[in-house]
Amino acid sequence: MINSSYLQAVLNGVILGVLIRYFLLKRDYRQYPSYPHGVITHLSMAFIAAVIGAIAIPALMEEEYTAVTFLALAATQFREVRAMERIMLEELDKTNLVPRGPDYIEGIARVFEARNYLVMFAALLVGGATYWGNIFYGLVAGFFAYLVSQKLMGGKVLGDIARVREGRVSFEGPNLFVEDIHLMNLGMEKVRKEYLERALGVVIEPYNDDGRATLANNGQRIAIAHDAAALMGIYKDVDTPEFTPIVRRDLDTGRLALIFVPLEKDIEYLLEAVKRVPVLESAVSTPLKSYLGRKAAD
Asked: Is the pTM of this model over 0.85?
């Protein structure tokens, strides 16, 4: 006969684990995984992770140590989920007018893998609190696990590492500049006129050498252009590559310049959109944490 305490602990752990995963699903301007089948896929994986985490306590209490090996098997499966997400997003990226880029995609795939581990941890915590306490303790543990998950899944945005401000757009002959940073050469007079009428320029100034090193990453720059286009809309089609947003770097100061042709010319919201671009894990660099880096910055 099934031990009622075990059953209660497992059910509580599984239910709260899946609920936590549901609340961690971000459905925003990135539109992923907001489509119904994507949500179902991730909740199904969350259910598997929650079951594995929740049954760990009964398995240990019954000294069924071989059952714990399922944790290692689950880790292998969740790595497969990461690979699946990466492949899917890479295929979808081919149809974007402004692609995310491989660094952004890898970051999203890592997040989906990590959230399954968080669900497993939450189910384990809730199951243990329910078994050694009661359902109320399990609910408290579930709330605590949710807060921890939110904290762990949070990250820095561009506004945390750099100052974002408007930059003046100008031409010197066919050469396009945002302030003193050269972006590209545009030979057609009609295109130059469109840029002067419609384009917005943004200058991104890192606060320190850590920010400068992070902004030097090309994947981070691609992410800035993609998110700006996703949030503001872009005056571009498949046959007008000259209107693709570009981010260039000033080699002397580490500043970035973004040239962007939006559907609606509103610099205030463009600046806010750029500030909210996530700092990619693969782009983060912290030379100031090393002795040589600090000396070089002096």
From this structure: no
